[in-house]
Please model this.
Amino acid sequence: MHKDTTNILKEFWGYDGFRGSQKMIIDTVISGKDVLALMPTGGGKSVCYQVPALAMEGICIVISPLVALIQDQVAQLKKRNIKAIALTGGIHPNEVNDLLDNCVYGNYKFLYLSPERLQQNVVRERIQQMNVNLIAIDEAHCISQWGNDFRPAYLECSILRELVPKTPMMALTATATPRVVEDIVENLELNEVRIFKDSFSRSNIAFKVKRSEDKLYQLKKYMGKIPGSGIVYVRSRKMCISLANFLIKNGISASFYHGGIPKKDKEKKLDRWLSDEDRIMVATNAFGMGVDKPDVRLVIHYQIPDSLESYFQEAGRAGRDGKPSTAIILASNEDEDRAKQQFLSTLPDVAFVKKVYSKLNNYFQISYGELVSEPLAFKFNEFCTHYGFNPNMAFNALRALDQNSVLSLAENFKEKTTLQFVASKAEIFNYLDKNRKTAPIIQTILRTYGGITDHETKINLYMLSQKTGTGEKHLKHILQQLANDNIAAYQNHNSDLEITFLVPREDEHTINPFAKKIKDFNQVKQQNMAAMLGYISNRNICRSVYLLNYFGEKNAEKCGTCDICTKKNKEAPPHDLEKRILELLELRPYSSRQLERITGANELQLLNLLERLLEERRVSINLKNEYIKT
Model:
């Protein structure tokens, strides 16, 4: 017997009933059958495995690709007083043993793992000892080489079939083409699988592409037109900061978020955005996965994404509460060439991946046959400068090594500060007497770290800042002064990436087994970019229909709200628009922006008309860049 699932939903989530296919999915997996659930972003995928896991005796094993997503899911479960454990990186082996013991004996309901964890013998052995009631493979598209964010480590998920052969398996994804669906079923060895597909349609989202040579103006305009919170996606950290500053200067509360920000700063920024203190978050694709903010009214892509899968997932973060929302791509005439340059010209071939791998080992002074198992802080830009690598191509090579389980790559800003007092006790006391202002801070450091006079000690600046009431910047100044005065040895290192090597160094022999996969991956990326650019250049097919067709929904209905569906209402007959423009220019000069605002004309239509009128010498441009009638 199992517990009533509707009661569980009400007790832990506060909902009176299920949505879409949720109830059928839950009933099917409780009956012991395998399930593949295809549901849109915000469609309630996690409920599909969390509710049945609570309804049955035992523990649910959840495989998820992102540490941030795992941590968010576990935190949400704990808030509901549901016992959940996450095995993420950086956990001491002894602690891993303790956590796995809790899963066997501690009445825990959920164990979240990255796919890489399944490669560890201790994890496999303990799973066999657990009473596993359900296996959930989240973001299941990662198992397919034709899927976005392919992760070869996901192929290890099939080992769970051997470890707990009688346990039902559920695979879940929001971005799967028909080809990817076939791969998921085959690679996970889903038996007599029932496939549930809720339409990916997001009828409350108006999908738009706005072509403009002045994207900053368009960005500001949309921010003024659409109320509520929003996300602006960009492709670089530099652009992230630049656009956030632009919005702030124009009176729009905004912040920025990317992978190189320290963890505590990320948390502050996220909290301010979630609580609406900052209305807009300008972010790279490091932001969004696992973030639950239902009332996002606007998602703007300021630069072209690498695939329709990425775009649909990111745009789908708008309107998760079901209310009308907007997703816009801002594109200039040069953006398509830039996207090809960024995503296609920097795809690394096999020879380049081998070169980067060799130089990476040299950089960390790892000898042939050696395996360094601890995580290593990595200054990526310094590495690229040292060896003369194109940063985009080098990063893609590192991703190839990560995807093929040669190393684990984490975008994680880290700061490591070490200190050792090298002066004698008498010299330290004399120094404290002469520096009365900083003496209390130095004494706090000495009391906090007992062995700091004997050996180099890693210190926590944030914790010391809290203890002493002194800002971290001032603390660093004090520590540097200690070093300058020969009282202590002080080092402060920071990195924006972290690398963990997973196999011993064998140079070409390490890369050769997956050389063909690198070629296939590059082919997938080229196809993805072609589909993305096709969506942007499309002038005739409803945006929603185009997206749904891509994901295999062939009978989708027009949305009625996208820029394609509404363009007939926007475009004035050419003769009428020409007449209106000339009438306005009879009165006084106007800029193209002013003419667009007054006439309500489509920007591209207006610019084409003005270009023709210039060629015919019926209008000209004055020194203020305004159009005048000639």
User: Anything to note?
Assistant: Residues 219 and 332 are 13 Å apart (CA to CA). Residues 423-486 form one domain. The chain has 27 helices and 19 strands.
